[in-house]
Amino acid sequence: MKTETLQQYAQLAAVVIVVFGCYQILHPFIPAILFSAVACSSSWPLYARLRRALRGRSNLAALLMTLGLVVLVIGPTTALAASLADDVGAAVQAIKELLEQGPLQPPEWLKTIPLVGESLDGYWHRLAGSREELVAALKSLIEPARAVVVVAGKAIGSGLLQMALATFICFFFYRDGEALVQSARGILARLAGGLADELLATIDNTVTGVVQGIFGTALAQALVAILGFVIAGVPGALLLGTATFFLSMVPVGPPLIWGGAAAWLFYQGSVGWAIFMLIWGLLVISSIDNFVKPYLISRTSSLPLLLIVFGVFGGIVAFGFIGVFIGPPVLAVGLTLVQLWTTRSTGPALIEPQSGGKRSGP
């Protein structure tokens, strides 16, 4: 009896050592693996159609999908990161020069505003007269801000390396997707019994909802925002578009960007372009968030806004820049599985699997 117990402990210790060793080996690649799983799961229907068009040639279809990921995601992200480095450096230098000029003077057109123009102009002058100390304090913040920019640049660089690795992993996820899902289904069948297929369908449904509803909307808003900034002649259009992409996941985020751009145009005296920027922001940029996002999310599953915010910032803290794309899907899957588990014994599930049958891939 004692020998059998000792043998069981030895087997358990061996399993723990192997699992820990595997984790230590795979730990640096976890962000890339998660990103690949999210990308492949959300784009699997497109891969399946491409493979059918290529008469079942999985290797060629997987290669084309991987190249498409490079062209549509990795390449633009790399170019954007390089542009961000230039834009941020130029912005810091411009702010430094602006602060050296002293308090900002109100624009000439401010006085021409009916009823309140004179009052606003007088208030601006009184405020500018007491800003010398504020300007000096802001100057002292330039170097810390530069340090923050350097740290952010390193995080973006690390994220780009992870994304480059993820494209390599994606090829094998596409090519061997069915086998991987069958293995996952077998593991879940031992752990969850008859719920294995439903769990996989729920995970697929949730990941698709996050990618299409959140990141699809954010990308669309960023693109139309960049277009509006370029048309209006706002400097740093790519930088502002990137900020729009990230802030679109936060309540009332994009209006802070295009509203600030409109205010800058007003200050520069370009009243017509400022009005254009306001109209473009209200009718084009914000309409995407008000109409497109609810439509895309309603096609799959409903995701709490707080979960999205936690996923974005928590993903950045945990995985760096690439965590923006990992955090929300992972948290959404976790919440969905908890809801599915709790509602199993109390009533119908809150989140139903996506209709249209089970998919054989990720």
UniProtKB/TrEMBL annotation:
UniProt main location, coarse: membrane
Family, per entry: Belongs to the autoinducer-2 exporter (AI-2E) (TC 2.A.86) family.
Protein name (Swiss-Prot/TrEMBL): AI-2E family transporter
Keyword Ion transport: no
Signal sequence annotation: none
PANTHER family membership: TRANSMEMBRANE PROTEIN, TRANSPORT PROTEIN YDIK-RELATED
Membrane-related topology note: Multi-pass membrane protein
